[in-house]
Design a protein that fits this description.
Elements (H helix, E strand, L loop, with lengths): L25 H11 L7 H10 L1 H4 L5 H9 L3 E2 L5 E2 L16 H17 L3 H12 L9 H14 L14 H5 L2 H14 L4 H10 L17 H10 L3 H29 L2 H15 L3 H14 L7 H21 L4 H17 L7 H10 L5 H11 L5 H26 L1
Antiparallel strand pairs: 1-2
Helix pairs in contact: 4-6, 5-7, 7-9, 11-12, 12-13, 12-14, 13-15, 14-16, 15-17, 16-18, 18-19
């Protein structure tokens, strides 16, 4: 007989615990805050202390966005941009205060203290502002307070300037809300910073190529931009926009020249440059650097010295007359020599070719003998000065001998 089967092992089944799911209740969060904070807006220190010391009790990690709605709006944002005040409004919010720099700063500083203490709140602030800016046309007079607060938050590096891209909604741009809010933010930022710092913040936020998009369609010309910022008392912004627009135009011209130097003719290049000088009211010192950079970028330069020297000869005998046509003053010639010096210093392939380049520029009447002598004697830049002056010594001596021979012939 076979042995009876072994009894099945007995296991005690454990019932799996269900994780408790806490309901997300921003309204309850708001009401709890309202019960604890003072009703008197004069009790500012007590209000700040309550917010700082009750982070875990109110679960800021979970309710970060409702927290900033409470701090900014005084209540919660409802669909469509309406503000749900709840039992009462937060008397310490941005919207509840006066629209003055002092009041707004004090209320923004509450957010600053909270974020410095609880780092994770900075991301919640960015998310909250991205949502709120979609409703700037719904906030009435409070919109200017929000713009002032946003500028202050950018100054404190609690928000990036890129947050303003949330204003690029068709309806906000069309009715001018985006432009007015952006203007308010810039004005607020300039209360504590200079125009150069604003330019840096705009560029860092990726807005430098999008600024015109904040203007309503049909009002994106330079003339309108100037009138708008002058009327708003922000003349430094007029200069910034003009400079930015000129930079954009120069980038387009440089690209066109780059393509012409690759596939076009010297005549086409010269004609195009003349047109751009007339259209943009440029002078020689505006266009010669563009010509030079485009010409150098349009060629794939060899790395071997003998090939590179032959290439330099071909390029400058072909295109030298184009540069010469727009390099007719001593100031421009010296500026070009300094440009060549900088390039040769920064690009190792050209460090031994400085004299070769200058020689062909001289042969093609781009730079004069007097410009070369001035550069050699007292006008050279600091980068690679000794190296390039040493290279130029034989050529300079030759120029001097030519001058001496000329003087003897005249005698």
């Amino acid at each position: 007989m076979s042995a009876p089967p072994a009894p099945a092992p007995q296991f005690k089944l454990k019932q799996r615990k269900r994780e408790a799911v806490t309901k997300y209740e921003p309204e309850a969060f708001r009401d709890s805050l309202l019960k604890l904070i003072p009703e008197d807006a004069e009790e500012f220190e007590k209000y700040c202390s309550i917010l700082e010391l009750n982070e875990s009790k109110f679960d800021y990690k979970r309710y970060g966005e409702p927290l900033f709605e409470f701090l900014i709006l005084g209540g919660l944002i409802a669909p469509g941009g309406l503000i749900e005040d709840g039992p009462r409004q937060n008397p310490f919010s941005i919207f509840a205060g006066d629209d003055t720099p002092e009041v707004i700063r004090a209320r923004v500083d509450i957010m600053n203290k909270l974020i410095r203490r609880y780092k994770y709140l900075q991301r919640r602030l960015e998310d909250s502002m991205a949502h709120l800016l979609q409703y700037v046309n719904k906030f009435g007079d409070n919109t200017t307070k929000l713009a002032r607060a946003t500028g202050r938050l950018v100054t404190l590096q609690l928000l990036p300037m890129s947050v303003l891209t949330n204003l690029l909604k068709e309806h906000l741009v069309k009715d001018g809300a985006s432009l007015q809010f952006m203007t308010g933010v810039f004005r607020s930022f300039l209360e504590d910073n200079k125009i150069d710092q604003l330019a840096t913040a705009i560029k860092k936020g990726g807005l430098d190529d999008k600024l015109m998009e904040f203007f309503p369609p049909g009002k994106r010309e330079a003339e309108y931009v100037a009138r708008h910022f002058e009327a708003e008392g922000l003349k430094p912004l007029v200069a910034y926009f003009n400079k930015r627009q000129q930079s954009a135009v120069k980038e387009q011209v440089a690209q066109h020249l780059y393509e012409t130097f690759q596939t076009g003719t010297p005549q086409e290049a010269a004609t195009y440059i003349k047109q751009q000088i007339a259209a943009n009211e440029w002078v020689e010192t505006d266009v010669v650097p563009l010509i030079w950079d485009a010409l150098m970028a349009a060629n794939e330069w060899a790395s071997r010295a003998e090939q590179l020297e032959a290439q330099i000869k071909t390029v400058f005998t072909t295109w030298g007359k184009v540069i010469a046509a727009f390099c007719t003053s001593a100031k421009t010639e010296i500026a070009l020599l300094l440009k060549v010096q900088q390039m040769c210093y920064e690009d190792g392939r050209f460090q031994k070719q400085f004299r070769t380049i200058v020689k062909y520029l001289y042969d093609e009447d781009v730079v004069s003998e007097s410009a070369i002598m001035y550069w050699f004697e007292k006008g050279a830049g600091s980068q690679g000065k000794t190296l390039f002056q040493k290279q130029m010594e034989p050529f300079v001596q030759w120029l001097k001998s030519q001058e001496d021979d000329s003087d003897e012939d005249e005698e």
